[in-house]
Structure formats: structure tokens, C-alpha cells
Queue: 4 jobs
Job 1
Amino acid sequence: MKKENKLVWTSIFTAVGASLCCITPVLALISGASGVASTFSWLDPLRPYLIGFTILVLGFAWYQKLIPITVGTKKEMDCDCETDVKPKFIQSKTFLGLVTGFAILMMAFPYYSSVFYPKTEKEMVLVEKANIQTINMDIKGMTCTGCEDHITYTVNQLEGILTINASYKQGNAEIEFDTSKTSIEEIEKAVNSTGYTVISIEPK
């Protein structure tokens, strides 16, 4: 039973670890400590291995939970000992099912993390064409869509931002803004405040 418990807690730990780099930006936004958003970005290369390990651990835990029911039937029938002892909740299939569900939610977190970010609807304003500028920022530290959402949300808080398209796959953000309302320096400062790092800026 102790071995089963260790497997369960190991699966929880690895499932959380697999998406920790994407969970941190959301926690940072909620707590207001946005500067720690990229703290666990170094875990991203390990994500496939952590997910695979979690699946293996949970699979083995379910194997141990289900197989004894069939394999040990004869032995149990030959035994006159008490067999109606109800297992503790932490040793039950229900608990293992809850842990499995939690692990799946954690591993899938990057795909639905955007629901935690408030929608920032921009008001339509008239902008002189001469004041519109577009820049491309190369950004270090983004590892998932949650990182994109975090940067998009933060930059959109600045006045004068017209559009922003952040991409963790390309490691950049293309931003269109009104130069009479904000500046490249302010945008760079906003991005850096999230914990990710602007490594280059190229006007388009």
C-alpha cells in the first residue's frame, strides 16, 4: 500500500512539473508578481519526458490496483481471513481516479490557460497614420500559449497599443502602436516586467 501511495504522489508531482512553466504565468498574474512568470521556463524541454513518466507511473498504479482482483481471487477464496475490510480513501480506486483526472488537467493546462486571462477589448480610436509604428520584438523565455497570453495582456495595458501578436514558437511579438501615446521603451519595459526578456527590437 505504501508503494501505491508513492506512485500516486509521484504522478501528481510529475504532472504538475510538466506544466509548471505554463502555470507560473497565470499564478503570477493572479498574485500580481508578474516578474516571476518565466521562473520555470527551463522545465519546458523536459515536458515530454515528465508527461511520459507521469503516464507510466499512473499506468503502473492502475495495473497494481486492478490486476490483484483477478489474479488473487483463488488465494482469497482459500483464505478464511476477513476480506470485507474497506480500504482507506487514499488507497481506493476513487482516489486514484481523482489523481488521474488531476494529472490530465495539469498536463493539458497549456491548451486552456488562456481562459484565466481577462479579455482586453481595445476601443476603436482614430489614429493618424503618421503616428502608427510596427515593431518586432524577439523575446526570450516564452514556452507556451500561456506565455503569449501573459505578454499580450501586459502590453495591452499600455495606452496606444493597437495590435499585438505574440508567438512562443517564433519567440517574438509583433506590436503595432500609436507613437503619440506610448514608446518602444515603454513597451520593452512592459514586456521585461513579465519576467521574459526582450533581446532585440526591429522596426517594420
Job 2
Amino acid sequence: MTTPRLGKVSLPEVIRRALDARTAELRVGMPATIESFDKDTQLASVRPCLADTVTLEDGTEESEALPVISDCPCHFPGGGGFSITFPVQKGDPCWLVFSDRSLDKWLDNGGQVDPVAMQQHHLTDASVFLGVRPKPGAIPDFDPDNFTIGKDGESADWAALATKVKDEIKALRDWCATLHTNFAAHNHKGTIVISALTCATDTLVPPDTDSGPPAVNDVASATVKIKG
């Protein structure tokens, strides 16, 4: 069976070109950079980083930059009334995800909506996921073994755990209280200053009192570091 031809182009070629043209209009995802960010609405304007390829009338192709996309919702992890936020600045790299349907009514109203507009995976229906980076912008001094949070490039220190800190303060306060009792029992005339964290005494120590304060144990988390 002979394949039908339309002019100089076969029917399969016409179908392929039509599918290619339709696919070219459907967006899925791409890198971008932040142009501006509104802290009140948490919407951003972004500049796509990948150019389009445009076919001219003479059949040649050339690259064409995509326009800035405005009013893109930004993703910040959250749920149950809690959220994690961080500053968003011009030039920050991000990743765009394009919605199956128009986002306009959902952005204005939230909840279940009829998008009305029939557009699918349209350039203007992008959401922003922050933190996706190109290789030149990789996180410096990346720690492969621990959870870190804070400003990139700053030195990291272990986060203190509240229960461990509380235990250390209690041990020191108990020692101070014992020291105070022992001095009082021996009618010692030295000066004692007691606070939540420190004890200062003269150099004399009663016979039934320890020779020094308790050793300070490590209060740091084993897995969490704070940078900056």
C-alpha cells in the first residue's frame, strides 16, 4: 500500500510535525532564576534559563529567550500549621514545574476550583521550587553525614539539645547547693556566690565536700549542625 502524500510531504510526516508543534507548547519543568519575590504573597517573578528553539519561515532555527514569568507560587515545606521559610533573593536558582491546568483561579481562591481556561502545561502556570542549583552554584563545604541548616559558606557548629543542657545545669546547681550546705555546716567564713550556672568560692574546701565541680558532659546533637 502506498503512503498518501500531501504535496511533497507524506501524511505520517504531517502528523509528526503536528505532534511536535503541540508538544512544543506543553511545558513540564525547567531551571530558572528569581527576578523578584513578594514576601506577603510569596509569589515570585522568574526568568527561565533555557531558551526556546524557533523555526523560521525559511526552515532555519534560532534560539529565542523565554519571557519573565510573573506571579509564580513558591514552595516552602510546611504542614499542620508549621512551615520552614528562608530569604529569597534576586538571582537565586530555582526549578519551575508547570501545572496541568490554569492556576489563576486557584491562586486567587484556593480550594477546589474549575480552572475554566483550557490551557495545559502553559508557560504562565509555573510553580517555583527553590534550592535546585547548577554545578557552579553547588553548596560549599557540603556535609555528607549530618543535617545542617543555615547560611551557605558559614562555619557549622553542633546544635545543643535542650534535655542535655538541662541535665548539665541541674548537676551544677546540685553541686552548688551541696557546697553551700557543707560550708554552712562547718561554719566556714568564706564567700560563696551561687547562680544557675556558676559557683565561686574561696580556695578552702570543707573536708566532706568534693574537690571541684562536676565534669561538663557534651550537650551537642550527634546529627544536627547550625551554620552561621
Job 3
Amino acid sequence: MFSIIQETLPEDSLLKTYRGGAHPERWGANGDCFAVTVGYPVSLRDFVVAFYTSPLFRIERLLLRIVVNAPSSRRQAHAVAEGSAAEFAAWYVGERTATQLLMCDRYERTRSWFCVAPVNGGTRLRFGSAVVGSRDTLAGAMTLGGSFPWLLRFHVLYSQLLLHAAKKRLGGVG
């Protein structure tokens, strides 16, 4: 787990460059990036499947089915990862390249980003996310809300755990 690091979001990240959705002006400023390098080649498809079918993410899938009526299955995870489907649980594909996948939630509040990059015979796996801001009427700036700092601590740990779980499913140890 300690091999997961938080790093700067790359400039070419779809999490930064994608402007789709209901309020494109709210995206791009906020985003995080967690990364780990594995010593073998991993395709974007395999990374996304490993992430969405990990035991930890299956708990989130169950919660999404119960709380927001957004069921999902392993088959749907594979279809989105392969590019033959555009929706998975509460998300839809915002944009895809050969090495990146951006998932947008149906409420236009969050984005999830996956990226694979070859490095020295291995692969750099990156996972990031962004939360939509809202205009603070007093300050005039974009904010993330009063409870966000508390939730951010949980989010950072959860993102690291999800990336670690995906790495384990891909055959990476530790």
C-alpha cells in the first residue's frame, strides 16, 4: 500500500482537459492523482476491469445499487473497459483515449479518471478524481462546500485503497 503515491495531475489528463457536461466551467481546477508503478505491461482495459471488479469496489457497487438505484455487474465493468458500453453504475464515459478513461457521474458532480503509461518495461497506473465546485456568492470564487475538508481525508485514503486493490487484482503484490 505504501507504494501508492499522490502526484501532480498531468497537464494532458482528461480530468483537466475534458470540458463536457452540464457546467464545463466548473471543471479542471480541482483534481487529484494517485499512482503506482508495476513491473509489467498493463492495458487500460485490464486496469479498469481490475479496479471495478476489486473486492473493495464491489462494496461501493452494492451501495450505489441500494442508495441511488445504480446497479452494475462484472459484465458491465468489462464492457466499459473494452469500450463496448458507455455506462457503468452511476457513471457514463465522458471521454476515452488509448491510455485514459474519464468517467462522469450522472449527477454531474464528480469525475473518475484512469490512466496507464509505459515505464521501463512496466506500467504507471494512475487514478484520479474531481468534484464539481459551486460559486460562493460572498467571495465569488469556486468552493467545494463546508464538509469537503473532512470528506477529503476519507477520499484520499479510499482512493489509495482502491488503486492498491486494483494493483492486487492485476497480480501486483504489496
Job 4
Amino acid sequence: MFGNVDWFTPLQARNRDMPEAKLTLSIPDRAWPGEITRAYPEACVRIVAAISQAESGVGLAEISGPDLDALLDDMMEHPAVQSMEILQHGDGESLVQFETQLPLLLFAARDSGLPLEMPFEIVDGEATWNLTTSQDAISALGDQLSAMGISYSVDFIQQKITNADDLLTDRQQVLVAEAVSRGYYDTPRRCTLTELADAVDLAKSTTSETLHRAEERVMKEFAATALDDVVESLAESP
């Protein structure tokens, strides 16, 4: 919204062996983003950078929405806001630097040892976080959020595969891409196995076996990452 800002941003951890999670958090009114965005439900507070100190937090926020001047006045008067400076102010949006004595989200991330990915948005008292970290770190974050009185829901946890080379061979990738583009997996199919084999210049049997192996790997990876509980319960069933 305001171009590049020279500011501190936390390290964003990326590891294909770690799950990706999405959390929705309900921020208490004692923290200014909670009360302010509930009072102005059409506004959006986008935290673009922040750093926690011993007993406070300093951050940079892009704030947009109607009644922006009134919102900024209320923010400045909020008891949790120690200082505030409007760096840029335009038509319906402002860039604000602030210091708060209740950076609850920052403290929760810090105390759980989790690098907080930014930016993230807060609308109508709720923040959405996308995280890529270990299961243990997500569990520790949940404990910290609960201890601070922040209710939350886990929208999803899934394994993140960042590179198709980690899952399929080059030959499988080419064949699956061709199959998808020609409608082999559509319902009803727009391309038969024979037509697909002719298109990639392979024998029908080779095409069928290669697709089957690719499908096997994709389905097993999906089951291992998204269906752990179901697979375990089936394995334990007599």
C-alpha cells in the first residue's frame, strides 16, 4: 500500500518438513487492535512489522477504512497505546508507528519461540495467522494464547510440499501435467488413456503404470499429511 518500508521484520521460517497452519485469533479489547477494529468493523489493521521489548512492543501498521480520522483519534486515546506517530496519511489509509504496553500477540509468539510471519491483518477483532513451523511450536503457541486469554481456532494444519521434485519424478510430473491439461481427470473425462498415451508418445501400458505410480505417491503423501488421524484409527480397527 505504501511501497517498501525500511523496518525490522521477523524471519519467516520455511521448511518442507514442517506443517503449514492457519489460525484465527480473537483479540481481547484490552489490546488496542481488538477494541478499535470492533468499534470500526469496516476497518482493516495490517501489521507489517513489529518487535517485542521487555514489557512493550513497537510496531508499524497500515490502517484503512471509513471514518479513519476518528479511528486514529480513538487509537491514540486507547489505554494500551503508549505512543503513536502517523507517518503517512492519505485517502482512507494511514501508515502508523505505535508503541503498546500490551502486545499480546507478540508476547505469545515470543514466549512460544515462534518467528511470527508478517504481514497479518486484523478485522473486526479477529486476526488471521499463517504459520510454517513444527507441531510442537504450534502447540506451545496455543498454550501461550490460552494463558493470555486469547481465544483461537485452527482453520487447518497441513504438510507443505514446496517442490514437486520432492514428490514426483520428472517423467511423472510431465505425464500428470499433460493428463490434467487434456482433461483426463475431468468428470466426465475429456481424454482417454489411449489418447493421452498417443499425446505423450508412450505405450498405453507404460502410460497407465506411470500414472498409477504418480497417483500412488500423491495419495499416500496426502493421507500421511492430511488424514493422519483417520489412517491411524483404521489401522487400529480389528
